[in-house]
Amino acid sequence: MRVKTREQVRRRIKYRIRKRAKGTAEQPRLCVYRSLKHIYVQVIDDQNSRTLVAANSTEKDFPTKAGQNRQAASELGKIIAQRSIEKGIEQVIFDRNGFQYHGRVKALADAAREAGLKF
Q1: C-beta separation of 83 from 53 below 8 A
Q2: Is residue 66 part of a domain?
Q3: Radius of gyration (Cα) for the chain, nearest Å?
Q4: Model confidence over 14-47: pLDDT tens digits?
Q5: Alpha-carbon gap, residue 18 to 6, rounded angstroms
Q6: Is the pLDDT at 51 greater than 90, yes or no?
């Protein structure tokens, strides 16, 4: 039996989720990626293969400092919700990208919901 790495397990989960979660122009997909230091979010229309809105914690004018992971994720959730609503996007499909719905991913989703996005 072959030992699977954490990344291989995450990718299997990611593809299983991606089968069901397809973004459209009316209801795009909110995709989250997190690394050890930063977190990245995109709102994607899969039918036209376009990224509609994007935000990440490496932007120059990002309000929190490095090391404040959950706080940075909640700030990023507010930013992505604000940018999405400005573009006329109010309802999205949440794609956790194979990561557990816990910690930074959950903080981002909760902040985006509070800021006005509907999942």
Answers
A1: yes
A2: yes
A3: 14
A4: 888 887 877 877 899 999 999 988 999 999 998 9
A5: 18
A6: yes
- Record the pTM: 0.85
Q: 């994720």: which residue's tokens? A: 73
60 and 98 Cβ atoms separated by less than 8 Å = no
Q: Does 97 reside within a domain?
A: yes
Domain coverage including residue 50 = 6-114
Residue 49, domain CATH? 3.30.420.100
Domains in the chain: how many in total? 1
What's the per-residue H, E or C state across the chain?
CCCCCHHHHHHHHHHHHHHHCCCCCCCCEEEEEECCCCEEEEEEECCCCEEEEEEECCCCCCCCCCCCHHHHHHHHHHHHHHHHHHCCCCECEEECCCCCCCCHHHHHHHHHHHCCCEC
**Amino acid of residue 31:** C
